[in-house]
Amino acid sequence: MTNDPAEKAILETLAACGPGKSISPSDAARRLAGNPPDDKWRGSLSPIRLASHRLARAGLILLLRKGKPVTPELANGVIRLKLAPTEG
């Protein structure tokens, strides 16, 4: 497990949503920000975006654009995050 708070927020949110499901980066940003009742979580989107790129490059998650995996370089616009399939 990672020590980075943004990476932890992504992985914990994905684990909570169930196998095979994807999340919006805003779901992880809300978790990172402590689920505030207002829009203060929006400040957490940038760290979540950077962390999602690191996790995707490490092969831990997939970045989805229109339901298809994309590289971090092509992950602009509306994306979703999903746990990468495990070998075995």
List the helices and strands and how they pair.
Elements: H1 5-17, E1 22-23, H2 25-32, H3 45-57, E2 61-65, E3 68-70, E4 80-83
Features:
single chain, 88 residues, alpha+beta, Arc Repressor Mutant, subunit A, four-stranded antiparallel sheet, 3 helices, 39% helix
Can you walk through the features of this model?
The protein is of the alpha+beta class and 88 residues long. It has a single domain (5-83), classed as Orthogonal Bundle (Arc Repressor Mutant, subunit A). 39% of the residues lie in helices and 16% in strands. The chain contains 3 helices and 4 strands. The protein has helices spanning 5-17, 25-32, 45-57; strands spanning 22-23, 61-65, 68-70, 80-83. It has a 4-stranded antiparallel sheet. Helix 1 crosses helix 3. The radius of gyration is 12 Å and the shape is globular. The two termini are 20 Å apart. The model has no long low-confidence stretch (mean pLDDT 94).
Helices and strands, in order, run as HEHHEEE
- Over all CA atoms, what is the radius of gyration? 12 Å
Largest sheet: 4 strands, antiparallel
Basic shape: globular
Question: What is the mean pLDDT?
Answer: 94
**Count of all domains:** 1
Q: Fraction of residues in helices?
A: 25-40%
Discrete helix count = 3
State the end-to-end distance: 20 Å
Class based on secondary structure composition and strand pairing: alpha+beta
> Briefly, what CATH class?
Mainly Alpha
So, CATH architecture?
Orthogonal Bundle
CATH fold field value: Arc Repressor Mutant, subunit A
Strand content: 15-25%
Q: Which residues sit in consecutive blocks of at least 5 with pLDDT less than 50?
A: none
Query: Looking across the biggest beta sheet, what order are the strands in?
Result: 1-4-2-3
CATH superfamily: Winged helix-like DNA-binding domain superfamily/Winged helix DNA-binding domain
Total number of strands: 4
